[in-house]
Structure formats: structure tokens, C-alpha cells
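Feature request, filed as a ticket because there's no other form

It would be nice if the structure record came with a short human-readable summary line next to the C-alpha cells. Right now we just get the raw output. Example of a typical job, pasted below so the devs can see what we mean:
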Amino acid sequence: GEVCNMINKKYNEFLPSMQSAEDLVSQLDGLSSNIDLLKAGIENEVQRDLNVAVAEFTELKQQLERDTLVLSILKKLQEFDTAIKEYNTALLEKKYVAAAQQLQKARSSLKMLESRKGFELKILKALATELTVQTQNMLYHLGEEWQKLAVWKLPPSKESSSLESAMHSELHLRTVPSKEEEIAGPPVASVLQAFAVLGELHTKLKIFGQLLLKYVLKPLISYPPLQPFTEEQSDVFILRFKSEGPNLDHSSPMEVFDKIKLIFEVLHKYLLNVPLEQPAEDKKDRRVTLAELLGDTIWEELSDCLIQNCLVNSIPTNSSKLEQYIEVIKATEEFEKALKTMQFLKGDTTDLLKYARNVNSHFANKKCQDVIVAARNLMTSEIHNTVKITPDSCVALPRLPDPGAGDHLKMQKTSKLLHNDTVNLENETKLSQYTFSLPACRISSSVEKLMELAYQTLLEATASTDQCCIQLFYSVRNIFQLFYDVVPTYHKENLQKLPQLAAIHHNNCMYIAHHLLTLGHQFRYRLTNILCDGAATFVDLVPGFRRLGMECFLAQMRVQKGEILERLSSARNFSNMDDEENYCAANKAIRQVLHQLKRLGKVWQDVLPVNVYCKAMGTLLNTALAEIVTRIAALEDISAEDADRLYSLCRTMVEEGPQVFTPLPEDNKNKKYQEEVPVYVQKWMTFKELMIILQASLQEIVDQWADGKGPLAAEFSAAEVRSLIRALFQNTERRAAALAKIK
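Raw output as currently delivered:
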């Protein structure tokens, strides 16, 4: 009974808790199905609404960005518009700087608009055009104003620049009555600043600077008599020119500097003393003045002109005047200082001053330049104006100083002539006559002058400062190097075409080589102290000059040889002379060769030294004889008539050949050289032997051969003689016997 009670009791307690658990479960089931419903609802509806909302949001955000962009663009468009309006107002009131600044504003607004990617407005094209039109309009107005402010009255452009035309130039600068100035500031300033703001000032000043150089500054430098004078009226300042004083070639640097300074002072006072607002992008620490800008554009050209047309001419040409040059250097310093004060020049020593201070080297350079120019003119002058040189000719030479005389010699002009026969090496030593003598011949007078120039310059070198002495010595060496390079090229065609010029050129080179042997020697005391280890010599140039003369003459000889062979090639090989036509051709060829030699003998007469003349003519005559021998010796068949005709052709050569030797103008003196022809013509005896064979019997030929010891054997080989016998004689036993003896 007890146990049942306990179980009942527990059971009763258990029931309700189970009940509640069951309730709980059923509640949970309900909840769970609610959640499923809800989930299905969310998946179906809410999610959809949410997507819509996000899309709307993004769209709104983009809309906003677009609106902001449009707004900023509209703002820029408005800024552009305002700027253009304000520019128009300012322009009407002639407030040029303000107007220019408004244009720049409009320009930067337009830049912003153009930089927006993906936003190409049709209107931008129109705005850019509008801006360009307005800028051009403004520049036109400014240009008009500028033309009123600085008025040029110029000579008609057809006139070439001359002192006459320079006197017709005027420059009018408008000065403004003071009562207006308080309102708008000086118009010069506002016009030029407006140009500066628009970035066009540089162009304007450049044009002004060019006119200033061409019509004012350069004429003042180039025409010494030209003087500037000025006139001030109530509202305008005028710069004019007049011609005063002697018409010198060059005015002194001092005078030129004063004139130029006056011009700059006027410009500074009336036109250029204006500080500039820089265009917005390059803000500098300081304001640049107009004077400085103008200075920048013209200084280089002006200083070049001053150096070339004024300082160069003031460099002294002899050493004594060098001391006085200090004044010029001072004046140059003053001139630069004045220009710096007016702000035309910035920075330190310019080229102009450097040039003036460097006078010693310019003196030497000028001297050397004059020497080289003179030398070059001599080298490019005609070769064929000649002078006769004889062994006792001499170069006109000033008396040389004693070795101890030191630097400060006064130059003594040509008090003593240097004779070739006693080459005056020092003033004491005499060498025997003809040690260094040149054979008589003709040289170009220009080359004789060139040599005098070389001696003269070396003499001047010995009296100069060390630096100058060295430069002058080297410029004399340069004369000869220049000759070596210039003459053969400059006269090339004539040297090839004209045998006489080739001969003169040959002599010129030999003459120069001859003098170069001793040229340094006369001046060695003075020069060797300065030039290391006795380098004061020209001997090293000698072989080059000899070669130059030889090569040119040999080239001419080759041309002449070629012509001789060319003429003989038309002689039909000297075969079948019994044919009239063949004989005529051969005869004509020989006549032409003799004519050519005769003409050469004439053009080289009295030009070439006699020994060179005889060698040259001998070589050419030899070419002709050797060719004739070769052709005749090669013939396979010579009839009796052929032999007679060949003999008479050869006789013409032997009789008339020597007569082409006429080395001297006096005929009676040429006999001696004509008799010596065999000495100069190597094949002379061969030719004579050939003539003997053409007339000889078989026996005479065998006798002339004399077992290989006779005169014939000295000139021809056995094979050649046998070949000639076969050509001249019929095949007989007597011929066979004769041939057997020639071996």
C-alpha cells in the first residue's frame, strides 16, 4: 500500500511536467512552422523590395554626382561669361591690364572645362573660338596703342643700308601729359603690361629690338659721321640722326659707346622703365623690368656688332700702340656699367669686355690673320705671271738684328739684300757662292711675294712679345702648310691641262723648298729662346714641297706621253708602207708628234731649269722613238719599198727631233743642247741602228753584229735581229747563212 502511494504521488507530480513539456513541443512546432512561413515570405517579398531600394540608392547617388558636375560646369561657364563681360568693360575704358587679366581668367575657366573627361560639350568649341577672337581683338587694340606710343619713320625699304638712308630714320616716343597719368597710370606701362599678361610681350619687344638694331644701333656703329640728336615736344620725344664730322673708316670705341649709351638712356627714360607683372604661372621673386627683357633680346647681336665693327678695328697693328689700348678697355668697362645701371644688362663681364681685355692675343691673332689672308690671296692669284730667278737673285730682306740686340729693336726696312750666292746665315759667316743657289728658272711672282711675306713676318716676330712671337712664327709655318693644301686643289684643272703651269708650279715648289732650308736659321737667336730646343725651323717641310712639285710635273709628263702614244697608234703599225694611204697615215702621225714636242719645247722654254728641261724633253722624244722601234721590229714582212719609206720616216725623226730642244730664248745658245740629245734620249742609238738595218745588205748586217760584239748587238737582241732579217730578205741560202751567224 505504501509503495503504491509513492508511485501515485510521483506520477501525479510527473503528469503536469509532462503536460508542460508536451505543450512546449507543440508550441515549438507552431513556432517552427511560423518561421518557415516567415522565411518563405522573406525569400519571396522582402528580398525583392530590398534589391529595388539598393538600386534606387545607387541611382540617386549617381544623379547627385551628375548634378554636382553639371553645377560646377555651369559655374565655370558662368565664370567664363563674367570674365568676358568684365574684359569688354575694361577694354572700353582702356584699362588694358585689367582686361588682359580677365581674358586670362576666361582662359583658365575654359582649360578646366576642357579637362573634364567624358563630358564633351558642343559649346566648348564655340567658347574657344570666342576666346581666340577676343584675344586677337585685344592684341589688335594693344598693337594700335603701341604703334601710337613708339612710331618709326623709316627710309623706303628698297634702299640698301647706307649713311644716306640711315639719316632718314626717326623714332617718336609719345610722352603723356601729366593730368591723365593719375587716372590710368602711364599708358606705356599699361599697354606693355597687358602684352606681358597675354604672353605676347616677348614677340613685341623682339620686333622692336630688331628695328632698333637695324635702323639705330648698327648704323651708329657702322657709320662714324652719323650722330643721334634728340628733340622734346609737349607730348612727344623725337630721336633723329644727322651726319657730322669727317667720314672716317672707323670711329673710336669711345665715340661709339657714347652714342649707344645716349640711345639707351632715352629708351630707359621714355619707354622702358616699367616693372612688369609676370604672367600668373611664373611668379618670380622680383619684378623684371622691360629694359632687362629688351636687353635679353638684343644684347648678343649688339655686342657681336660692337666687337666686329668697332673693337676689332681698334686693335693696333703694331706693338708700339698696344699701351694706349688701356683707354679702350676702361671705356668698355664704363659702357657696361652704365647699361647695368639702367638694367639693360644683368650679370657680370660680358663677351664685349672679355674681348677688349684680351687685346694682346687679339693683336697677335689680327696680325696672323692679316698674314694668312695676304698669303691666301697670293696663292689664289694667277700662276702664270712670272719672274725670272737666277743663281744670284735675292729676296729683299731687312737687315737682321745682332744676336744681342734684345726685344726692343726698331724695325729697319730692307737695308740689306740677302744674296743667294752668299747666303747670309749670320752677319759674319759667308758661304761659298752657289752652295745654296737655285738654277735659273721662272717662278710665279705671287710666290716671290709670298716668300717676302714670310721673311717680313718672321722679322716682326723677333720684335714682338713672347706670346705674339710664337703665334707669328706658327702663322708663317701655316702659310706654307696652306700653300701645300690650297694651291694644288685651287689650280687643279689648270695644272692638269696646261703644261706650262705645271712647270711653273714645279719651280714654285722647288723655290719654296730651297728657301725653307735656311728660313728659320736667320732668326734663330730670337726664336730659339722661346720655342723649345731650336724648333724654329722649316726644314721638316722641305721634302713635302719637293714631292709636291715633282708629282705635279710627273702627272703632266704622263699626260704628254699618253698623247704621243695616242698619235702614233694611228700610224697603222707602220706596216705596208707601199700602200699610199698607209704611208700618209704614218707620216701624219710622225708630223703630229714632232709638232707636239715642238710646242712643249716652246712653252717650257725659259721656264724650267735647263737640266730639268732637257731631261723632260729627252724622256718624251725617247717615248716616241721607242714606240716606233717596237712597231717596226714587230713587222713580219718589209718589202724594199716599205724599207725605203720607213727609212725616210725615221730620218724625219732623227733630223727634226733634236730641234725641239730649245731650253733658252737665245737660239744660238741652244745648239749645244741639241748636239747633246743622245745623252738625254736613251733609245737614240737603237733608233740609229734600226735605220742602218733598213738600208743594209745581209753582209752589212752580219758585220754590224760582229759575233755579238758590234754596235748592232749593243742595241738589239739576236732574236730581234733575226726577226728583222726574215722580214727584210727573201728566204735564200744566203739568208740562212746570215741567220746562222746571228746568235
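Something like this underneath would help us a lot:
DSSP finds 28 helices and eight strands in the chain.
The chain has a mean pLDDT of 82.
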